[in-house]
């Protein structure tokens, strides 16, 4: 069942979103060769708690850390630890925060060290796909309208979109209805109504979109071990338009 949010609820979720923006603002400069993913996780938890929020992922289904940090061929749900970043790594950071019982969820991907146009294109495509999905929205749209636009942007650049993991509704739970696929057909899926809040999160692969889960039970990797990038924002739809609760620009 889809839960539509009131203006007051969206305002609380916006507070959670502002906390995630603070984390990303601190995260970018911290992503350097030699830094461990554990250190990035500590930065995430400290920033969330200092800002008055609670980590959304820590303990969720027994996940042991605050941030999901996935490197290179890892798509999502990487567990932070002693691994050190190296120049040329892709680092996807997925984080969530809870404020007064309401959640926000967002992800970004960075390139460590020197510029690499091919890798940067993969990163930019996930971000641009999310924005393409939002650009397809108009009053009366359905989820499939956004999904098709996301898929078309990704595939037009020669990449593929992961099928096994999708975006989702969000509110008093980190995952709510409806599902928000990053692929699909316009005119299908749930109708987007005022008060709907969803997390849109394109996961883009350099090679085939097939994925598998490693032995730790969490880390999802591309089957062909080619690179992946991830971008996510929490979006609230209003009577007129929408607000990006976790994005740099609304």
Helical run tally: 4
Order of helices and strands: HHEEEEEHHEEEEEEEEEE
Tell me the count of domains.
1
Order of strands across the widest beta sheet?
Answer: 8-7-9-14-15
Radius of gyration, whole Å: 17 Å
CATH class: Alpha Beta
Describe the oligomeric state of these chains in a short phrase: single chain
Tell me the strand percentage band.
25-35%
Distance between the termini: 28 Å
State the major sheet: 5 strands, antiparallel
Second-tier CATH architecture: Alpha-Beta Complex
**Shape category:** globular
The low-pLDDT segments are none
Average pLDDT reading = 97
The CATH topology is what? Creatine Amidinohydrolase
CATH H-level name... which superfamily?
Creatinase/methionine aminopeptidase superfamily
Count of distinct strands: 15
What does this protein structure show overall?
With 250 residues, the chain is of the alpha+beta class. The protein has one domain (7-244): Creatinase/methionine aminopeptidase superfamily (Creatine Amidinohydrolase). It is 28% helix and 25% strand. The chain is built from four helices and 15 strands. The strands form four sheets. The chain has a five-stranded antiparallel beta sheet. Strands 1, 2, 4 and 5 form a four-stranded antiparallel beta sheet that branches. A three-stranded antiparallel beta sheet has the order 3-12-11, with no helix packed on it. A hairpin with a 2-residue loop joins strand 4 (90-99) and strand 5.
